[in-house]
Structures are given as C-alpha cells and as structure tokens.
Amino acid sequence: MRKNIYAEEPNWSLSLVPSLSDICLQWIVNNFEKKPIFEELLPVQQDFVQERLSTSLPLHVTVNLVPDGVYWKRCCKERWYLCDVSHYGDSWKRMFFERHMENIIENFIPDLTESKTVLDLVPLCKNYIKKLNISQLLPPIKEPQLEREEDEDGSDWSFENDVDEPQMNHFNFRILLDKLTRLEELHLVYRVKQCGMTFEWAMFEMTDRDCESLAFALKSCKTLKLFRLHQSHVEDKKCRVLVNYLMDHPSLRELDFSHNLIGDSGAREISKLLTRSKLQVLNMCNNRISGSGAKAIAHALSSNSTLLVLNLRLNHVMDEGGQAICKALLNNTTLSSLHLGGNDVTSVTACALSEVLTQSKTLRSINLSCNKLGEIGGKALAEAMSQNFTITECNIHLTDIGEEAASAIDKVVWANQSSERKRQAQRRKP
C-alpha cells in the first residue's frame, strides 16, 4: 500500500533546510565570545561569520581576531550616521578605533571619569590610531557655589568667600600620547559643544596646567607629523611653552596655531622653531602678529630650507612685516605658498613682492586679498608677473589694483597653469 506524505507548510522544500556547515557556522557566531573560532575557517566561512557577528561583542575578543572588513564596517555604520572611510585610509577598523577613542576623550570629565577608561583601550587600539580629531574637551564639573547669606548683624558670609577658584583643567594628554605609537596627526580644540545656559569663557580655552601637560605629551609622541591647536585662546605665554617642547621634534612637519591670540612674542618663538625643526607647513592665520613678529619669522625664513607653506592671513603684519618677508624670499629657495591676505599691507609690500616674482623659481601660490595695494601696487605686480613662469595661483581680490592690472595678472596665471598641466602630463607618460 502506498501513502503520500504532505508537508504542513505548503511552501516547504528541501532547499529550506540549512546545511550542516551553516548550522556549525551559526553556532560559532552565537558562541563567539566564549569560544572564538575564526582563523581556522575558510575565507568564505569567515565572510559568513563577519556578516553575522554581534557588533556589541567585547573589543578584546574581536580586535586581534577579526580583520579589517565587513564586521568593522557594520560596527561603524551602526554607531555613526556619517561614515566616510576614505578619510581613514579606506580602513573600517581604523575608523572605528579612532572615532571610538575620540568619543571617549571628548566625553572625559576630569575628576569624575577614571583614567582607566582610556588606558584600558590603548593596548587594543594603538596599532590602528593614526589620527585623532578632538572637537571638544570637557572641564571638571564645578561644585555649586553657596549663595551669600546675611547674618542678623548685616554681615554676609559664604564658605567660598576668601578662597580663589581653582583652574578648570581638562583631559591630561600625558597619560595617552606616548602610548599611541602610530599617531601622526592630532587636532585639538579646547571648547565645550552645546554648553547652553552653562556658558563660560573658561570653557573655550586651555589652562596653564593644560598647556604644560600637553606640551610634555607632544614631545613624547615621536611619530607626530601634524599638530593643530586652534580656536583655544592660545596667547604668547602658552605658545612659548608649546614651542619650547616642540624644538628638535624628529617628525613634526605641519603646525597649525590658527584662530588664537598669539602676538609678536609668540611669533619670535615660532621663528626659533623654524631654525630647529623640519616644518613644511606653518599656519598662523587669524592671530595678533604685527610687523615686529613678522620680521622675526622673516629672519628665520631667509635661512630656512624646509618650509613650503606659510599662512599669515588675518594678522597685522603691515608693510613692516610684508617687506621683511619679501626680502627673506629673495634668499629662500623652498617656499611655494605665501598667504598675506587681510594684513593691512599696501603698494609698498606689493612692490617688494614684485622683485621676488621676477627671481623666484619655487613660489607657486600667493594670496594678497583684502589689502589696499592700489593701482601702483597692481602695476608693479602685473609687470613682475609678465616675467614669471611658476605662479599658478594668485589671489588679488579686494585689493583695488584696477581691472587692467588684474586682467594682466590673471592671463599670466592661466598661461602658467596650462604649462604646468602639460608638464605633469609629460611626467605621467611612460
């Protein structure tokens, strides 16, 4: 007698039954924390596991076992809305650990968060962190001040009446930087985001103690190539401390102190750094450097053989500093980009720069925008540019040089750009 057997599920078929291999792999996924198995698997099996592993697994389990790939991409995508992996050398693993460390530092509250929170992460992430971009540094939580009360005799009192308020110090980088043995870039801003009604100016500047600890940490970080400290109310005293520790740094190539309060005294320290470092890029945009400070930088520039980019935009160098820098460029053979926009320079500086333009073979970009160069300055620049074959960028906006001079300069720049493109095309040919 023959019987037909029908499945309870009409859509059931043998193809729906998972293979024994998949069942075993799923067991590995479900028990990965207790019994991590990965390296013994075939590549296709590793892909299966990476696509299904929980992104909440402890980092000490996954960091050395799961390679860069799908798993770390999932970790990033689930945690952050914007994930541009091209900013991290196309490495999802690097993105995860850099941003994870950044978040810990940005939310670190001195005297409340334990240093162990940061230090425990270092052994896991130090091989993957090349850049840290810290956009916030929190100060300690201040104890509420007791309001003054009046005694019956009319006198007032409070527990804090005769005690100076302590400084608001931030995260201590001394505990971290020397341990990040592959760190190449450090970007810092001393500020508090979304401070709301608790706003205080002290939230937007580093203290003296912050400066000392940061300077010591920078010196100990031998791999650092780029250091940016901006919008943090850094003035001459703090600039001197930082620069003194950066003297003779073995790897520093780019220094950015833009949007601070550095004046001539700080500029003189920067000039010393130019003689005792291998800096290639110096950005001092939007500070308080006047002619005296610019002359000090110019003096160092005349004998410097490494600096490629100098940005002094939005300072007060005026013609005293502008002329000094131009004179220095007559002896300098490496600088390729100079930015003097918004510095109150006039035709005097333009005429001094015109001499440089007829001789320099290295200068590629100049920016004199937002200065009152006038027609005399414009004419001098136009005549000099007619003899120049290297300048491919020349910003002369808002300088009152006149349309005729501006047009002549633009034509030379376009011709130089065309020649440069042809040279690059020739180099690319086999």
> Uncertain runs with pLDDT below 50, 5 residues or more?
146-166
Tell me about the largest β-sheet: 9 strands, parallel
Q: How many β-strand runs?
A: 11
Helix-strand string: HHHHHHHEEEEHEHEHEHEHEHEHEH
Radius of gyration: 30 Å
Helix content: 25-40%
- Side by side, the strands of the main sheet go 1-4-5-6-7-8-9-10-11
Q: What is the overall silhouette?
A: globular
Short recap of the structure:
With 430 residues, the chain is of the alpha/beta class.
Could you describe the 3D structure shown?
- The chain has 15 helices and eleven strands.
- It has 430 residues and is of the alpha/beta class.
- The strands form two sheets. The chain has a nine-stranded parallel beta sheet. The protein has a two-stranded antiparallel sheet with strand order 2-3.
- Helix 1 (20-30) packs across helix 2 (43-52), helix 9 runs parallel beside helix 10 (264-275) and helix 13 (347-359) packs parallel to helix 14 (374-385).
- It is globular, with a radius of gyration of 30 Å.
- Residues 146-166 have low confidence and may be disordered.
Task: Map the helices and strands.
Layout: H1 20-30, H2 43-52, H3 59-62, H4 70-79, H5 92-106, H6 116-119, H7 122-125, E1 131-134, E2 149-150, E3 156-157, E4 185-188, H8 208-220, E5 226-229, H9 236-246, E6 254-256, H10 264-275, E7 281-283, H11 291-301, E8 309-311, H12 318-329, E9 337-339, H13 347-359, E10 365-367, H14 374-385, E11 393-395, H15 403-428
Parallel strand pairs: 1-4, 4-5, 5-6, 6-7, 7-8, 8-9, 9-10, 10-11
Antiparallel strand pairs: 2-3
